[in-house]
Amino acid sequence: MGNDEIFEGVRWLLLIHQLPTKPAYARVKIWRRLKGLGAVTVKNSVYALPSSVETREDFAWLIKEIAELGGEGFVCEATLVDGLNDSEVRALFGIARDEDYAEVAAAARELAAKYSSSSRAELAGPVARLRKQLDEIVAIDFFGADGREPTEGLVSGLEADLQQEEEAMSAEGSQSPPAGKLQNRVWVTRQGVQIDRIASAWLIRRFIDGQARFKFVPGTGYVAQPGELRFDMFEGEFTHRGDRCSFEVLLAEAALDDPALAAIGEIVHDIDLKDRKYGREEAAGIRTLIAGIASSHNDDNQRLERGAAVFDDLYRSFSGKQVNK
User: Fold this and answer.
1) Can you give the pLDDT at residue 164?
2) Is the pLDDT at 198 greater than 60, yes or no?
3) How large is the average pLDDT for residues 58-83?
4) Residue 171 predicted with pLDDT over 50
5) Residue-wise burial string across 212-250, b where 16 or more C-beta atoms lie within 10 A, e elsewhere
6) Pairing state between β 213-217 and 186-190
7) Is 188 helix (H, G, I), strand (E, B) or coil?
8) Closest CA relative to residue 233, chosen from 144, 106, 141
């Protein structure tokens, strides 16, 4: 998800409870409430949330509800010492939210397929419900799961189509700055860079802004500073739009009409969105290379440096010319 230092000092709330066998609906009711709060299971009948004023209140109300159902439980604040570490618990949150996002993404793609044969009036209701579902997931996405950006792009793309706008916008309706204003900027993205962010950073530095400086921030809660450009992150100026990954959006916004870059964009798309839209045979090998870089380097700048070498070679193989450095 990101570098460990961004979670320094995180403490966990653990809810430990027991419910009677009857009424039978009690377990299902409490499970649904826990799921709605975004809690994850760390052991049988032990659920975790990151500690905050809001999550303490959520668990307090749930304990009251458990008692009303004839059960018992308590909440404690914990620092993990042995058996399960913070990174493993964060990974559980990432897996849970990515499953939620995948459900919304699948529904968004189904609606997009219907768009050409359905009127806007018929789709307005389902798209609005999908937006509500997505917003509810975002509210409990405490650590910025990887599925957030592509799913947001799909839903906002549907919304933009319904409004008949020429360009899909981000959820807040912000537009990308003109290509001429992309020089000598600070480019901000989420920590723990992976395929789309690595490829996008390479594209930015090689073909858009040779003096680009990169800044890596938490996946949630970051407030952009004046003059910064955000990419591949929620509400960013350059992020997923419709069914396009951030790399593809950057290509279009910077007006880079280069078949070699377009081919790389297709590979990045297939790896990042996992929808096999282009069926690029190179995707499996590049996916393995980037995964190896990510697992070998915790530092995001090192990941960008190593990834740049991969994309330099890939660009040469497609274009037959040297990459300017």
Assistant:
1) 54
2) yes
3) 89
4) no
5) bebbbbbbbebebeeebbbbbbbebbbbbbbbbbbbbbb
6) parallel
7) strand
8) 144
